[in-house]
């Protein structure tokens, strides 16, 4: 009986002790929550507790920032527009440069055709020589080279794309004339004896093919008893025409 009472007493003391401990724990937790709330409230009050002057300054700075951002947007739009204008001008200059380049190129071609500049390049050399003497031939003119033979070669070369032509080294211009005076031909007042070397600057393959075509210039000249020879040349140089 005494032992049972003793156990009850111990159990009661233990329960009371647990209650004290729990009370202390809840008290500490309550203090911590209250302290945390107070700190948070103080921080909020500090952030919101601006004076009127501070608030006006803050508002003014904010408005200035908004205004500056709007100005920046407007300037960016203006910059984009000017950049587009610059691109249009550059494109226009590019087209004008191409036009000027084409004009300069055409002018150089015209100077070349007029014989105003020295030219050099690949081409062909055609040699026309009088035919062999035939005692049975009554008319000697039947185996001599005449101006119309030279004209046939020159015309065919120009048609085939020759950039410049010379006869015995003398440049042919747009207003050149060729006359036959007996055994010689006269080019722009200068006489040249046979054989006649006609040089032309251009694509050698094209020029040769045009002259050698069946029934073309070569065949016609050979039928007229003219000795015809053709060479492709890697380098032909022609001096400009003086005094024209």
What this model shows, in words?
- The structure is a single chain.
- This protein is α+β, with helices and mostly antiparallel strands and 244 residues long.
- It folds into 2 domains: 52-117; 119-238, Alpha-Beta Plaits.
- It is 57% helix and 19% strand.
- It has helices at residues 2-48, 52-114, 147-159, 204-212, 217-223; strands spanning 119-129, 164-167, 170-171, 178-181, 184-187, 190-193, 196-201, 227-238.
- The strands form 2 sheets. The protein has a 5-stranded antiparallel β-sheet with strand order 3-2-7-1-8. Strands 4-5-6 form a 3-stranded antiparallel β-sheet, with helices on one face.
- The longest helix has 63 residues, at 52-114.
- The chain is rod-shaped, with a radius of gyration of 54 Å.
- The chain starts with a helix and ends in a 6-residue tail after the last strand.
- The model is unreliable at 8-16 and 42-47 (pLDDT under 50).
Q: How many whole angstroms does the radius of gyration measure?
A: 54 Å
Count of individual helical segments: 5
Low-pLDDT residue spans: 8-16, 42-47
Shape, principal axes of CA atoms: rod-shaped
Mean pLDDT: 77
* Helicity level: 55-70%
Family: Belongs to the UPF0749 family.
Pfam family, one: DUF881
Coiled coil: 58-92
Keywords: Coiled coil
């Amino acid at each position: 009986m005494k032992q049972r009472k003793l156990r009850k007493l111990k159990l009661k003391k233990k329960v009371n002790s647990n209650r004290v401990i729990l009370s202390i724990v809840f008290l500490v937790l309550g203090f911590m929550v209250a302290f945390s709330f107070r700190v948070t409230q103080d921080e909020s009050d500090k952030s919101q507790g601006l004076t009127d002057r501070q608030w006006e300054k803050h508002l003014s700075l904010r408005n200035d920032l908004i205004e500056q951002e709007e100005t920046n947007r407007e300037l960016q739009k203006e910059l984009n527009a000017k950049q587009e204008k610059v691109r249009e001008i550059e494109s226009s200059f590019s087209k004008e440069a191409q036009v000027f380049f084409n004009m300069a190129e055409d002018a150089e071609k015209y100077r070349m055709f007029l014989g105003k500049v020295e030219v050099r390049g690949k081409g062909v050399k055609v040699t026309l020589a009088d035919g062999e003497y035939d005692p049975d031939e009554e008319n000697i003119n039947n185996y001599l080279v005449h101006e119309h033979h030279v004209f046939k070669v020159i015309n065919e070369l120009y048609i085939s794309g020759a950039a410049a032509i010379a006869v015995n080294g003398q440049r042919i211009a747009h207003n050149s004339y060729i006359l036959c005076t007996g055994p010689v031909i006269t080019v722009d007042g200068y006489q040249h004896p046979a054989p006649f070397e006609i040089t032309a600057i251009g694509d050698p393959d094209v020029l040769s093919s045009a002259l050698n075509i069946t029934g073309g210039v070569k065949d016609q000249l050979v039928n007229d008893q003219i000795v015809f020879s053709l060479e492709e040349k890697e380098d032909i140089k022609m001096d400009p025409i003086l005094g024209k």
